[in-house]
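Appendix B. One record, verbatim.
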Amino acid sequence: MTIQDRILDYLKAHPEGVDDDSLTVALGLAQRQQANQRCRRLEQFGLVFRRRVNGKLHNFACSEPPVTLTLLAPGRMPEERSWFWEGNVQARVVEYITRLGYNVAFAADTASKQQGKDVIANSPSGKTLWISAKGYPAGTVKTNPRTQARHWFSQALFDLVLWHSENASVELALAFPNQITYRNLAVRVKWLLEYLGAGIYWVDESGEVSWQEARNTEL
């Protein structure tokens, strides 16, 4: 049984939530960082959500994970593990909205390029949120990263258009690394974001996340 499996079993047995320090002691882990890293990784896949309780982050097992996912071992992570890699952008946004009281029901396996909604969450007021997240391309000898970034931006925006047609009552959002190419494009499609009622989560290199409503989409 892996550490992730042990953590999930323990959290399911403790629905009140468990902080990283307590998990470390309860499971006999060598370092607190083991509990922290595994829980954050499980959070990306919608199997665990983290919420602040009395000023301290607690881990909770999601009651009904929507899908069964195979977690990647650290050595199998893809090469694109820079701060602007899609998986890191998604993880920071999941952490951010969880702190705001959202219950994250699902986070796509970005490492395997799983299709569909990247994040599905429920707000404290009960509204459903769907997020389309993108990273920033590293580029190749033949491909300028700015050119590829424009394609990725278009794909994410088209996701929102399709999802709005699927369910107009759901809250929609984009998530991008804070790169000037994406910032410029966001200004140019401000009208569409306003129509969709969608905002953008911007992820900085430091890991900080900021929320930008459509009507405030300015450089």
